[in-house]
Amino acid sequence: MDAGVEFSLEVSQNRYLPVGGTEMHAILSVTGQRTTEGDDQPPRSDPSHLAEVLVIDCSGSMADPATKIGAARQATAAAVDVLPDGVRFAVIEGTDQARVVYPPQGGLAVASAQTRRRAKAVVARLSAGGGTAMGSWLAAARDLLPTEPSAICHALLLTDGINQHETQAELDRVLHTCVGRFVCDTRGIGDGWRPRDLIHIATVLSGTAEAVRRPAQLEAGFRETIRTALAKLQPDVRIRVQTLPYARVGFFKQARPALMDLSERAAEIDERTVEFTTGSWGAERRDFHLRLDVTAPDDLLNEDRLAARVELVVGGQVRPATTAVLVNWTDDLVKSARLDSDVSQVTGQEDVRQAINAGCDAYDRGDLIEAHAQWVRAVELATRTRDEPALEQLRYLVEIEPDGLVRLKPNLSRMDMNVSWVNSSQTSYPDAPRPPVRPGPAEVHRLCGACGWPSPADADYCEQCNADLGTAEAVGRAGT
């Protein structure tokens, strides 16, 4: 499959640490750009490579009020309408078990005017009754979706309730079998669902978690979600991090456009190399926050040392786009105190969302004092960093006076809290365009990929461990 997308990889960091410093933070920016065909037109996904499963909660709670199941029918029909001819698809009715309602014979149907019409007729008859077991729904989607490497597989899961007919361990076991098989976006409706469930499923399966405050908003959201899924061109992109002996991965998060901690999804390649799956990609940019825990291997100061090499693995192949995360222990406090703009903005957004979620946690357990304190902190942080999306969510939780006074909303609804909680995972890029990367000085020294030691620019072998600097295990230039 010709993916029609090229990838670039950049790193933003301040490589200087004070003497004794042990944490190196870096932002990895991955950008996918569509290539052009002979007529200068960007390629489009081959519909035959796309597969979509719509998983609709039809438990008994969807009938209370009846507007929920009605909105679900309407939104699902709208999603089916968006599917172009040739896309394979299915609809699953989710209760305490999963049932494929379309196509009636099981498997996947191929989208056409006829199959879309038949699917919508089936969807119009969906009714509410039974329990909720999301793991069984995801397992059914997994078993329906194709396994060929070229397939771009996506599921959209809608729920209004609590995953009460299976244990967390059962759900996690299913999720483990789905990683890398398909991307799943989760959506909440009503006020009975748990934000943690939606966020957990979406994070493990490289998707997004969102929710609506009014059932009428669901249709537009479904259409947009399906259109986004259909724009994917590459089914599998992974980020590989190889560390030096004095460094290890502290955490790895997707930072933008949605915040999700990917640390627990690391696939160990060897004792120094891990890979993180990021799901399917189109023409888009995502930023990732890598923290390395480092220990100075010697008393050398003011020299760049290689801490980690980062590579992109696309469709199982390592791409030429490779970058280095450096570390330089220095006694120059001016250098070590300098803040990298990308790192500081990402950590600022993470701090805001951590405070929002901590407030929701506290409110959920009835601790209004702690909830208020956390949301006051979130407002202060969001205001300071001009994080308008976070402030938009906070305004559903608190009243913000012109003088900066923050009050809890007197009649805060469960729906507003849940929706703000899950939607706060969405992050944003700075309004100002990123400054162009200025070329650094000529190569000053070469960094050994085996031990991180800096050797002269014309050296063929590492002066420390004698490794061949011309092999793939060596990384060249000092950072700028």
Automatic annotation (TrEMBL):
Q: Write down the SUPFAM superfamilies for this protein, in alphabetical order.
A: vWA-like
InterPro entries recorded for this chain?
VWF_A, vWFA_dom_sf
State one Pfam family annotation. VWA_2
Family annotation (PANTHER family): VON WILLEBRAND FACTOR A DOMAIN-CONTAINING PROTEIN 5A
What is the protein's given name?
VWA domain-containing protein
Q: Which organism is it from?
A: Micromonospora endophytica
